[in-house]
Amino acid sequence: MGGIAAIAKQLGHRVSGCDANVYPPMSTQLERLGIELNQGYLVEHLADEPDLVIIGNAMSRGNPLVEYVLERNINYTSGPQWLLENVLKDRWVLAVSGTHGKTTTSSMLTWILEYAGMKPGFLIGGVPQNFDCSARLGDAPFFVIEADEYDTAFFDKRSKFVHYRPRTLVINNLEFDHADIFSDISDIQRQFHHLVRMVPSNGLIIHPQSEQAITDTLEQGCWTPIEQSVTEVEPLAGWHAEKLVADGSEFVVRFKGQEQGIVKWHLIGDFNIDNALMAIAAARHAGVPTKVAIEALAEFVNTKRRLELRGEVAGIKVFDDFAHHPTAISKTLAALRANVGNDKRVIAVLEPRSNTMKSGVHKDTLAQSLQQADLVFVYQGEQVQWSVDALIDDCQQPCIVSDNLPQFIEQVVQATQPDDTIVVMSNGGFGGIHQKLLTQLANKSLASHND
Predict the structure, then answer these.
(1) Any known ligand binding at 28?
(2) Pfam families given for it (predicted)?
(3) Higher pLDDT, 213 or 328
């Protein structure tokens, strides 16, 4: 919604907005653009009656502003519908979808197009650090959008991405998620099939060959050429990467068996290699030579909150990561393990905060996803609907659970040793835990030095 507000401002509209919690980095980004931010859902925020209210999918009936809009018959729409009608309908849309990696892949793709001089428009659900904003109108024709399968609005229960009408479609992966709106994976596949139906025959769909759930979805009907990433080098098959360094910081890119170049970058993790192949393939469809895309990735800076190093104290690194699904958690920890090796410790600090996590849908697979960590800390938030204590027995390594955040942070700090790597995983602010950890680690180090 913040990105949509920024684009509306660029189109010349006077824009204001409100949210239950307004916090950085989006709040500072919007304030810099001259967009008025209001805390809470007070009807006074609409006293100067607007021409149009764009209602986000977090809003539901009973919300004071929603009720006010309906009662006064104020013109309203959803964010995706507004984007289609005002921005996307005349653009070459490159949409990045899938359960994991959408934000990172969208950021990579946008940066590749920017590096190639195409000045794309974009809307990304995070803060891409190669840019100073998460959304911009850009110059025609190209527009990159993070294409989410979550529903559109309380009055439109279709997935957001069916409004985007892409010509280039990336499907990174497809797993069960969003248990609050989908009953099973077939529900999600149905929405993806609606999206596939909209990609024109002169478009392109790109996906990993290994993702059976995607293959099954495409077999329901596909009228568009397909390119795939493959696990083995095949002369007639699609995109393939060969790691040159264990942590994924250097790898060879091949297309149909032919070497295209070597990516040497600042990122780690097999999942980021997968994201890179998708971005390279999508950019090639838009006219960017693969060689140029590889050059661009060497200068790519990952999106905030995607294995972002927040600080280092006495050799202890603190990373922030958005992982909130067992698959993402597992891949994040595997990347760090490959990076630090087996001689140093990885400490996982997890907040089960997504609606799916809080409901307990993934509780039986969570312990397995944490295997690469040497020590696990899990925060039992107030809205978590299952007892996180169960993880203490399920985890093969020591697991500490707490529902008291200050005490929780203190426990992490006390357990930490020099050269440890801490990764904090949550899709929320987690009470500012990252800076609190760094501050207390610095105090601990100072006290130790004075002793």
Answers:
(1) no
(2) Mur_ligase (PF01225), Mur_ligase_C (PF02875), Mur_ligase_M (PF08245)
(3) 213
